[in-house]
Write a structure and sequence with these properties.
With 293 residues, the chain is of the alpha/beta class. It is 39% helix and 12% strand. It is built from 9 helices and 8 strands. Strands 1-2-3-4-5-6-7-8 form an 8-stranded parallel barrel, surrounded by 6 helices.
Length: 293
């Protein structure tokens, strides 16, 4: 059975030692692992965090946090170098925490979450970005491999990335990188906006897929949106995917740009019950016997 996890942002960002007691709560709600944002230096003690995870019986997957200053696709040498160094750092964090996968928009160049609007990208610049990403991922992949860690690139929707938006684009990049430590993660939230068929995109990425995020089109609790979970589960079964599946039905309400973000969904008094039901819902859709007929 696929392990089912929950993003740490469900409860807090940044996630600090004060939140470690939540590990047991996640486990009690039926989750097998936490998808933890890669901690910034000094944010948590990694050895202490690993002990807390072990005590709770919870595994961990890491989610990278990129920005314009650590930007693999950048033509600014300092930002590009910082992007490589950051990926190396994420692999070190993963090894210290006992995580096997670091996923996220590793190619960098964030849009809306860096306060930038999407703009057309000339073809020569697109290809130059791809070349810079290939170079950086190979170097970071060598370091990750030595730590026993996989780095998984994630396509985002067109409002969050102008580097990597579709599974096909990710496959083209992975084929160019051709490194055993560089793999793929997919998120159904982004796939709703960018893929003609989520199921076919899963099948396309099958050989590379090492992490999967099961999210509704509106970021709500699984089962409350328009995602066809039967077709998602069938496609994952057909490619033999047995890796981690995480949920991100989180709220967001920060003001990093001086203007508060609208909450993506309102808080619920029965949040724990809904999260437990979400974990059970996704597990049930990954194990339907009809997939095996």
């Amino acid at each position: 059975m696929n392990p089912i996890g929950l993003i740490s942002m469900q409860y807090a960002r940044p996630f600090t030692a004060a939140h470690f007691p939540l590990f047991k709560k996640m486990r009690d709600l039926g989750f097998d692992f936490v998808e933890l944002l890669v901690p910034e230096p000094g944010e948590i003690d990694l050895a202490e965090a690993r002990r807390a995870l072990d005590d709770a019986g919870l595994d961990v997957v890491l989610a990278a946090r990129v920005n314009l200053q650590r930007n693999l696709s950048s033509d600014d040498q300092k930002a590009h170098r910082a992007g490589i160094d950051y990926l190396r750092y994420t692999a070190d964090c993963a090894a210290a925490l006992g995580a096997r996968v670091v996923g996220g928009p590793l190619t960098g160049n964030p849009l809306v979450f860096a306060g930038r609007a999407p703009l057309p990208v000339p073809e020569d610049e697109r290809l130059a970005r791809k070349e810079r990403c290939v170079k950086g991922l190979v170097e970071a992949g060598n370091h990750a491999a030595s730590a026993g860690v996989l780095l998984a690139i994630e396509p985002l929707n067109r409002f969050e990335s102008d580097v990597l938006c579709t599974t096909q684009q990710a496959i083209e990049l992975l084929e160019a990188v051709d490194h055993p430590a560089i793999k793929l993660m997919l998120d159904t939230f982004h796939m709703h906006m960018e893929e003609a068929s989520i199921a076919e995109a899963i099948r396309l990425g099958g050989a590379y897929l090492v992490h999967f995020q099961a999210n509704e089109n509106h970021r709500g609790f699984p089962g409350t949106g328009s995602t066809d979970w039967i077709s998602v589960g069938r496609a994952l079964h057909e490619i033999g995917y047995n890796g981690p599946v995480s949920l991100e039905p989180f709220r967001r309400n920060d003001d990093r740009f001086g203007v508060p973000f609208a909450q993506w969904r309102p808080p619920h008094e029965d949040e724990s019950e809904r999260l437990a039901a979400s974990a059970a819902f996704i597990k049930s859709h990954l194990t339907l016997t009809e997939y095996r007929r």
